[in-house]
Amino acid sequence: MLDKGIRPDNNACGALAVGLCDGGKVDLAYELVIGVISGRQFEDSTLVYNALICGFCSAGRIDKALAIMSFMRRNGCRPDLVSYNVLLNYFYCDEFMFEEAEKLLTKMEDGE
After folding, report:
1. pTM of structure
2. Domains along the chain with CATH numbers
3. Which ranges does the UniProt record give for the PPR repeats (predicted)?
């Protein structure tokens, strides 16, 4: 799309990110989204960020998921309940990382 000069809107970018992440192609989804975001070709969308966060958590790459959450904040897009739930599910249910989950809950309560 981008090579042909077609700029995806939020819905198209969200659909591509969700589809690619569901298909296990998280790195490709990340490249697409970051390319579009860095070109400021669409508004920041929690749907797109959440798809990436979920995809990287599913792939066991929590460091990348947390980096996306940080990137999301820096770009003025506030994490929502879904953002936190995905990470908390990973910390509590998948990896039993209770201290990290508590830190995340504190951030969530503080509105960070």
Report:
1. 0.77
2. 10-110 (1.25.40.10)
3. 45-79
